[in-house]
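Human: Here is a favour to ask of a fellow structure person. Comparing notes only helps if you start from a blank page. I am asking you to supply a protein in sequence and structure-token form. Write it directly below this note and I will take it from there.

Assistant:
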Amino acid sequence: MKEIKNIIRQFDQTPPEEKLALATVVRVEGSSYRRMGARMLVSENGNWVGGISGGCLEGDALKRSRMAILKGKASAITYDTTIDDDHQIGVGLGCNGVIDVLFTPVDRSRADNQIELLKRITGGPRKISKLVKVTRSENSDLLGELLEFTGSESLQILKEEGVNIDELAQAVRSLDKSKNIHLSDELSLFVEVLPPAYHLILLGHQYDLYPLLRQTIELGWDITVVAPENKVSPMEGVNLMTPEVFDSIEFDDYTAVVLMSHSLHTDKENLRKLSKKKPKYIGMLGPRVRSERIWAELAEEGDAIPADLMQNIYAPVGLEIGANTPDEIALSLLAEVKGVFALKQIAHLRDKAQPIHERDEPMTFK
């Protein structure tokens, strides 16, 4: 999502008279540094933002993007790093993969051009969006077309190509991850499932908040800090809210919450509120014994944490990477959030039976 935001920012800052093209990775077979959906916005003067590889293919992509601008037509190219051919771009990179990239000129006269569409999606309500891009077509005017899927009505442009729109809509609706759809030898689509940016809600205001904010901003996630007024220094990209309006915060499947007030009572009351919200991730800063005390007190007060919510609580918070400083703990925490939402098997500190840190035993000389 950060890459998309950077592309939108570059688009808005580019003079209207300067022409642009968008390069998009639409298919990956085998190994590749970037995956499907990676983007690169190129201007006719050679400026670009984003990327389609680790820097290996950008030079050729820059030339092809400027060619798309010059011709005013979309084109597709396959970079095959699995073959031994001196004339093949990408040979010797060691990636051992096949990458299809679509180069599409950006038509500023269209209110629904690719960038304006991305802008509307990222600036609207938090939801999972599905984008349908035509990656192969005998109709040159159709190649590179980008549609936001909202149902059968949003795919009508494909009806003239002999596509059964209702069947296609059903297939797109069923997807939970990005995928290519081959309708015929002449027509292929790339359906990109685009979730909203992760939303990190931090409940606290002590000094260890700031390394976490800086790293989260760098990742391009949405951030909300809930703290008493005037306790947190304003930072660009950070939404500040007071505890009194906590109930107005919207939670979804991409929302993570961290209890980090350093006050046992405050964290306990916040966890009590979160029991009704049931976010997918709740991190509790501090040792396990502290969290266990909070859970026990809530149970004694008649507000025991439901079993299904307990599975979403990570205490101690973070991954076992040997983190000691606030910056390292922030890295450990954010890596855990990413792993949880990506459904990856990772080494959580909450699963560690021993103390987080080794106990310091003094040396004894006899």
User: Anything to note?
Assistant: Confidence is low (pLDDT under 50) at residues 90-94. The chain has two domains: 8-194, 199-351.
